[in-house]
Amino acid sequence: MENITHTLVGAALGKSGLARRAPLAGPALVIAANAADIDVFGWLIGQNYLDFHRGITHALVGAAALSTIVASVFHVANRIRSRSSPVRPSFLQMWLVCLIGGLTHPGIDFLNDYGIRPWMPFDSTWRYGDLLSIADPWIWIILGSALCMLSTARFGKLAWGALGCLLFAVVCVARSVLFGVVWLLVLGACLALAHLVLRRGMSPVRISLGMLALYMAGLLAARESVAHAARAAAPGLIMDQIEKIHVLPGRPTASLPWTVVIEAPAKFYIADVGFQDWTRTPPSFASFERNLDNRCYRESLSQEQMAVMARFARFPSVSVETTGNVCTVWLRDLRYARRNTEGWGVARAVVPPPQAPSPPGP
Questions:
Q1: What pTM, to 2 d.p., does this model score?
Q2: Maximum distance among all alpha carbons in the chain?
Q3: pLDDT, position 142
Q4: CB 348, CB 330: distance < 8 Å
Q5: Which residues of 267-279 are buried (b: 16+ CB within 10 A; e: fewer)?
Q6: C-alpha count within 13 angstroms, C-beta hemisphere, residue 281
Q7: Tens-digit pLDDT profile for residues 258-290
Q8: Which of 94, 212, 254, 283 is 20 to 30 A from 27, comparing alpha carbons?
Q9: Which portions of the chain are predicted below pLDDT 50?
């Protein structure tokens, strides 16, 4: 997930009561909830982004280590602040708070189709929750509206207002103005609800965390409904040997909420779907060749960008264009790209065509 969501989760946990466990626990929670993404600076130590991101820092071992570092920094700050006080702050309490915040990061990232490698350094296998998109504008509303209501300072209100305007603009650009208007109306309703809850003496943040859990449970039920429909209808729609069926969250810019990926021995079949009755309006599946045995592709794996994408791609599809004395090889991860155009989820390489084997001697 993007860091707005991680920040909102850390802040919500703090306002729900965890921030009272130790001085400065509130900001420590927010930093711990974002610490795993320090791996985006892997290029400073010569690491490739796709190889390094969501690796060791998103594993359980890495989350515990980063939480310890964050807790140590804030514990030292607390010791300095409390030098004149007879009560010494507890490192254990700060560490537990930071560990909870740190574990929320891989936990949430696991829920989307990008995945994490939770058992590194012992096992580098990717694991995917396939429930949330990389960015979910409804989570921004669920948590952000409650946190906004707890802000009393003028600057805080202005900052929340600016963030709301920015996210509204992002939603309009990524989806549509109509979707943005609907999003804005839902935001207004949630702000009104949070205000009512606060006036009744209840915690809007705790209720928002409960709503978040219900939202995820609803998504899980919806995904399983789509998966059940796909398993029932796919044999009549795909004239191929079906090996596995995946249901992924739709891309953030897509109008349909789910993507069904069907694996066959030599192809992937993909369709973006909603909640339609598959017996009446079956989705139209596009097919994509795996083509991983292509000789030009095998040759291209000597180039770093191709080798990295081959390790990262969950649904790899290769196409090769031969012109004159060169082969242009396209490797697409079908989660993110379905066309031969450079961009996210696509690697391109130019290699000489493989030499034909020499005829046998006399």
A1: 0.91
A2: 96
A3: 96
A4: yes
A5: bbbbbbbeeeebe
A6: 6
A7: 999 999 999 999 999 988 888 888 999 999 999
A8: 212
A9: none
Cβ-in-10-Å burial (0-12, 13-18, 19+) of 163 comes to middle
What's the full length of the chain, in residues? 362
Tokens of 136: 């979910």
Residue type, 239: M
Q: What is the pLDDT of residue 359?
A: 58
